[in-house]
Design goal:
By secondary structure, the chain is α+β, with helices and mostly antiparallel strands. The chain contains 22 helices and 24 strands. The chain folds into 4 domains: 4-106 and 250-327, Rossmann fold (3-Layer(aba) Sandwich); 117-248, Beta Complex (Methionyl-trna Synthetase, domain 2); 352-525, Isoleucyl-tRNA Synthetase, Domain 1 (Orthogonal Bundle), CATH 1.10.730; 583-671, Nucleic acid-binding proteins (OB fold (Dihydrolipoamide Acetyltransferase, E2P)), CATH 2.40.50. A 5-stranded antiparallel sheet has the order 18-17-16-19-22. A hairpin with an 8-residue loop joins β6 and β7. α13 (373-402) runs parallel beside α15.
Amino acid sequence: MKNKILITSALPYANGPLHFGHIAGAYLPGDVYARFQRLMQNDVLYVCGSDEYGIAITISAEKAGRTPQEHVNIFHEVNKDFFQKLNMSFDNYSRTTWEGHPPLVHQYFTDLLNNGYIEEKVTEQLYSEADRRFLADRYVVGTCPKCGFASARGDECPQCGASYEATDLINPRSKLSDAPLVLKPTKHWFLLLDKFKDKLLGWLETKNWKPNVVNFIKSYIEDLRPRAITRDMTWGVSIPLPDAGEKVLYVWFDAPIGYISASVEWALKEGSPDLWKSYWCDPQTKLVHFLGKDNIPFHAAIFPAMTMGQNQPYKLVDELPANEFFNLEGRQFSKSDGWYIDLEDFFKNYSTDQIRYTIAANAPETSDSEFTWKDFQTRCNTELLGKYGNLVNRVLVFARNNCAGRVPSLQDLQPIDEDFLKSIKQLVREAAICYETFKVRRASQIIMELAQLGNVYFDAKKPWKDAKDPDTKHSMETTIACCLECLKALALISQPIIPESADKVWKMLGYVSQLEHGNWPQIVETPIPAHQHLKDPSILFKKVEDEQISLELTKLKEMSKKAELPQTKSIPDYAPLKEMVDIEDVRKLDLRVGVIKSAKNLPKSKKLLLVEVDLGFEVRTVIAGISQHYQPENLMGKKVIIVANLKPATLMGHTSHGMLLAASEGDHLELISVEEILPGAQVS
């Protein structure tokens, strides 16, 4: 009987691009688990989506001159594209601005309110006169009331780990403007989390989670108190009450319900609107949340409490394999500090399976871990290429040249062959246990142990010697048949981590089906059919050269130094004025306001971007030499000025219908932009 397994990965916040640090915690482990469970023939639903509400979105949108919806539209697509490049196997990638999301949030709120778990209160909240708004806790800094740390956040102290309300801070100030804050009365609705304390602790006792998760959440639950679930703003899910005014539900309340709405959307796409209930409302379903350790409170206490307090028979989480942090070269990933990996360049130079394997091999399962470029090179060259790729290539080349490109019969096994096949099955069993118990790092080690086992066996049997003598040819064929069984097992156990490479090996073995649709137990027990035609081997992995790594490290240091530079600028060396022109010459130029709808790098060019600009009355394609100054994802939604009556020009096979106006100072270039003027307006 198939087990029903519901898998979620924490909803990424649509306020900027993701990085590999995020992938290691909530996403790659979830994808690996989902792929494994599908191979085990279980009934899997794997959902994720963009978290698109909250004050952080509104502030970033304001700075960028966009509406909140325009802002989240950009990063929803950016992150969705990133997940596609990483070969994530979500059954549905949704978003919290989807129209089906608010009704489910309203259902939660209404049930909790009617059941006595939500209370309306007028309280004094922190208000910034300078920013003209009430500030949520993440935009408040001050002195920790517990340990005295001077730069504590509004909800938690990074020094002592204490949780509190923003109003508990000493000398609170705005994170946006550094202005002091005052208390002003405002009405809000509070979730009475303290009422769930005993129920949560009893429920937690039934869980066999990782010690780091259990220890953290026990202390968190002990200190539960009523928490405001509404905010003074307009961007968010509305409050289903007539007297709510300009307030919305706080993002931490609505976001986890996004797992349910993503499932609802999936069911609608499948043409069976109630199908999602067979997962969320079936007590036999196994619900697994994948997340980073910073999201433990929401998934192990707050969302379960919310679910306990409403009326629908929704599942509570069964497994919570929260991971620690994944860093870069000894430091946290940070785009503002210039300490990150340019993802666009990465996928130009390296493969998806190379990064998936490297992250898996360094998975931060019990403690923080890190990505280093030297380790990446070692994983790619010594392990993927030297062990895995080498075994695949040498066995298949030998079989092509000495077995007529077909699978020999598996018969007349000697003790060395039998021991080899037994060892293969033992490693496959161990890999299955690792995947089932969320030990991705150990699973990656087993993959390489199996590849090494195959290489040692091949060298020990020396089939090239047996191939020379007709009397020993039979022994050679047995060796190759055993080696091919090893490749089959290697493809199988590596599919969850490096799916593209594993499927290539599977196809080289002569199978026509997709490995991802295979049956793990059946594949293990069924030998490759004798005489099955083998495909010619192909290159699985490219060598990562020393020069590449040196360039990456240099690039990282340069980005970091650039971020550290003071913002003061020297007096520029002004260019001389050009010759005088008549007013009529200026009037010949038709300058229009346009909004950038898309931007991408022009292949084979280091400077040019292909930009689509909406002028209101039409969309223009413009080739702009600005790729060294702007990332494509940062241009979308930007209002620029375009020379609209410039004669078309062809550059690298593409026609440009206009020119973007920009200002330059030395090596620095900025597009000239506007904020309030609508697209299509003339510039005079």
